[in-house]
Amino acid sequence: DAGVTQSPTHLIKTRGQQVTLRCSPKSGHDTVSWYQQALGQGPQFIFQYYEEEERQRGNFPDRFSGHQFPNYSSELNVNALLLGDSALYLCASSLGRGAFFGQGTRLTVV
Amino acid sequence: SQQGEEDPQALSIQEGENATMNCSYKTSINNLQWYRQNSGRGLVHLILIRSNEREKHSGRLRVTLDTSKKSSSLLITASRAADTASYFCANLGGNTGKLIFGQGTTLQVKP
Q1: C-beta atoms of B99 and A92 within 8 A
Q2: Model pLDDT, residue A81
Q3: Which of A20, A109, B62, B106 could join B75 in a cystine, given CB atoms 3.0 to 4.6 angstroms apart?
């Protein structure tokens, strides 16, 4: 079991660009959540996908969007990148209790 | 903000000593979970305690929960250098499926 896998591991983008991050959930997990973790802070909930629909959303602007595919994998898209979007982006999958996190994608916006 | 608080923010101890971290939260919970994070990498799930439980053990970990005070504590006994990491509490409230994390405690265990 590969657990939760995220790609890429690191990414550097320029202000104003768009980025897509990818997540494959743990085998058998049908729910995927995305979190943003700024340096020195705890993770902040962005949104959650279940059955290919956004089920919950945190306090993030519409520049942050996502998608879940029939195989439960998910993408996080961020448009019009700002310097403040630089962070570690974590994907978590779950099936009931507990959540399993991937290693994250470190996004740097310059 | 719904985000909880953890204290201390940083803790430095010698190998073999016990480490205690505290967490407070603001919303009602179904359960509270503790995670470990090494060097800004992914989060590793350590232990989950349900809202109707008061104490739970897992190996060298002991978690307590006081719902009347909306607080939890994580005790790591006989710490090891490999325990050096950041520790986060996260509460799962209602039926939202959303984890609300604290700010974390950075633990350094000196060999």
Answers
A1: yes
A2: 98
A3: B62
